[in-house]
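Saturday, quiet lab. Running sequence design on the structure tokens for the scaffold JK sent over.
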């Protein structure tokens, strides 16, 4: 009996290693925690874009199912690799928010088919860039990646705050009920993290989400109407919409793919730096980008939007240090089940935004700290301080006043006006290239 318990304990310790074996049933809560952390953010871009494009409720529901399947497939590819696709790292994939603004411009103007055509081309472009990353990655120095990770963290703080208040556009945004739900969830996360023992401590986010959900049920904040009239099984369709290859749409979306690639580099660098204690290798960056791009193209072939690495899950990794690939694969399995069995996904979709916000506000703060730690690890030379200070002040400052971009063409405004990550990346890259190395002290 003693030997068996020792073996079980040793197995659970493997949740902190990339490749160790963990019992399946004990892995599921950790995988579910990752799914719940990104679930609403995974389906929200679909709902926003399909609404802007005038798609029906049935079409939107179908695309949400496809989005979950694509997120599951993308996560498995990142975890275990297919050919040169994937980083073999604990990276969770999902539908990207980065593209929402450009899709809301392209879709109403040229149709949803133009979005899909542009994603197919843009995804292939990013995939090819990823495969050849070792030839151009040198221009993205560690200080550049550190600035981008910090910018990602800061950009997500408003996302967490909006969720805490009930979600953008909610009729009861900022209501007392949402404040109570968000606060209870956050306090439950903190208390569980303080008092739980051993590996259970890393389930603080899941505990907070469950407790918040229970409270939301009693408060009448859980909408169960989505569970009515759901089919038992639903499979994605190949080419449900005819792709349209519009040059203007392709150019606009391709530019955003470069921004998305920047975020993926930042996410991958943040994960390896904060959890593995090292820099990401060329092979890992290459595989991560290639997966981002080519799986996005595959997603478009099934009528869905691009997928990318999820920063909120990087924050969860940084907080819990649970990096076991098999454990995260159970999360990917849950996403696939949610996509194939609509009722399963519909239940997860009933999670109130305020409950999610109570957890994510702490996770996103972890990304900010991770970025600052990365800046510190690069060294506080005068050169690094100047690059970090100026790129962050320009990126975070200018994008808080988007009207100052009105003198630029609409494409430039679409890419940069409210995207602090893109501006920080561009400023840091330029400064890293022009500032002489000999200024380091």
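Result came back. Writing it out in full:
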């Amino acid at each position: 009996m003693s030997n068996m318990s020792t073996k079980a304990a040793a197995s659970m310790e493997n949740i902190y290693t990339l490749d160790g074996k963990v019992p399946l049933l004990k892995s599921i809560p950790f995988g579910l925690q990752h799914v719940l952390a990104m679930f609403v953010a995974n389906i929200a871009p679909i709902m926003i874009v399909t609404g802007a494009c005038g798609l029906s409720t049935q079409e939107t529901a179908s695309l949400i199912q496809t989005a979950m399947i694509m997120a599951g497939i993308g996560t498995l590819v990142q975890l275990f690799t297919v050919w040169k696709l994937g980083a073999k790292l604990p990276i969770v994939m999902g539908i990207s928010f980065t593209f929402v603004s450009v899709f809301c411009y392209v879709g109403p103007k040229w149709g949803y088919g133009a979005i899909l055509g542009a994603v197919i081309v843009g995804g292939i472009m990013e995939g090819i860039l990823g495969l050849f990353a070792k030839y151009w990655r040198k221009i993205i120095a560690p200080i550049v990646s550190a600035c981008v990770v910090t910018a990602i963290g800061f950009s997500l703080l408003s996302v967490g705050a909006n969720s805490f208040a009930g979600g953008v556009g909610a009729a009861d945004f900022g209501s007392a009920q949402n404040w109570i739900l968000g606060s209870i969830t956050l306090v439950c996360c903190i208390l569980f993290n303080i008092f739980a023992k051993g590996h259970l401590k890393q389930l603080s986010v899941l505990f907070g989400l469950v407790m918040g959900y229970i409270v939301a049920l009693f408060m009448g904040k859980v909408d169960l109407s989505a569970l009515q009239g759901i089919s038992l099984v639903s499979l994605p369709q190949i080419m449900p919409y005819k792709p349209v290859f519009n040059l203007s749409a392709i150019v606009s979306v391709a530019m955003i793919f470069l921004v998305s690639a920047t975020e993926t580099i930042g996410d991958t660098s943040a994960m390896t730096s904060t959890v593995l204690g090292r820099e990401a290798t060329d092979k890992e960056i290459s595989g991560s980008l290639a997966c981002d791009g080519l799986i996005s193209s595959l997603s478009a072939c099934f009528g869905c939007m691009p997928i990318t690495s999820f920063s909120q899950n990087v924050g969860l990794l940084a907080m819990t240090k649970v990096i076991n690939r098999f454990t995260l694969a159970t999360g990917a399995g849950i996403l696939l089940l949610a996509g194939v069995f609509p009722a399963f996904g519909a239940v997860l979709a009933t999670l109130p935004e305020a409950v999610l916000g109570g957890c994510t506000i702490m996770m996103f703060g972890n990304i900010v700290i991770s970025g600052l730690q990365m800046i510190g690890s690069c060294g506080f030379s005068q050169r690094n301080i100047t690059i970090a200070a100026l790129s962050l002040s320009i990126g975070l400052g200018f994008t808080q006043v988007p009207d100052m971009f009105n003198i630029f063409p609409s494409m430039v405004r679409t890419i940069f006006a409210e995207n602090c990550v893109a501006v920080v990346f561009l400023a840091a890259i330029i400064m890293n290239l022009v500032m002489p190395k000999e200024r380091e002290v």
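Notes for JK: The two ends are 60 Å apart (CA to CA). Residues 23-225+242-439 form one domain. Ask whether to fix the surface positions before the next round.
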